[in-house]
Amino acid sequence: MDFVITGDGSKTLFNAEIGECYHSKHGALQESKHVFIQMGLDFYVKHTGLQKVSVLEIGFGTGLNFLQTAEYVSDSDIHVDYVGIEGYPLPLEVIKDTGYNAYVDPLIWHSFTDNYDKSFGSSLPVIEKMNLHIAHTLLMDFTSEKQFDIVYFDAFAAVHQPEMWSDEALGHIARYIKPGGVFVTYAITGNLKRSMKALGFKIEKAPGAPGKREMLRAIKY
Asked: How far apart are the C-alpha atoms of 66 and 62, rounded to whole Å?
């Protein structure tokens, strides 16, 4: 894998086997903040007033979305239980080479990198007010007794990884979302909207991150 400098100066990884970058070439950091933090986490917290929330990320990847969530939590009164699903975890050395330490408090960065390998298989208090558990599993093999308030759906695009966007995969994810829970992703297509509606979600078109006009936010009835 090779690093690519994106439009906002932050790095992403290009996965040659998949044929796509882990994040938007228009700005990895901007995409993470906009799609998942602003349109997902911040939206949910402000609309519910809850101070304890749970997040499920589909495609943990480089950990950028987790780090931005941790940065949000550090400046708020909320507590987050964070679970990331990752079928093909990146080595810690690659995580460290992302340069994402430049975008979070040093305490968050060091706690994350110190606990990254330990967080596979168990939930750890990586920072104050936030636990992390990375489930080393494929999506369809993921099981949990929990349901989640927010889902960050950050899989590779459907053109490269269509199985992740199938009705079966989306239905599997929907089982783990609480009523009133929020599903956010950078993409919005007719097939995705129809699938989420059929699963009992209210569909919202939200402004997209740089490079995309719109994104999808879905709220479970």
From this structure: 9
Rounded Cα distance between 8 and 4, Å, is 11
Domain ranges of the chain: 25-218
**Tell me: domain 25-218, CATH 3.40.50.150, correct?**
yes
Q: Is the dihedral of CA 24, 89, 181, 127 positive or negative?
A: negative
With CA atoms as reference, report the closest residue to 84 among 108, 112, 56. 56
DSSP bridge partners of 135? 85
pLDDT, tens digit, 9 for 90 and up, residues 115-134: 999 999 889 999 889 999 99
The answer to whether the predicted template modeling score (pTM) of the entire model surpasses 0.85 is yes
The tokens describing 81, both together, are 């239980």
**E strands within the chain?**
2-5, 11-15, 20-21, 52-58, 79-85, 124-127, 130-135, 148-153, 177-185, 201-207, 214-220
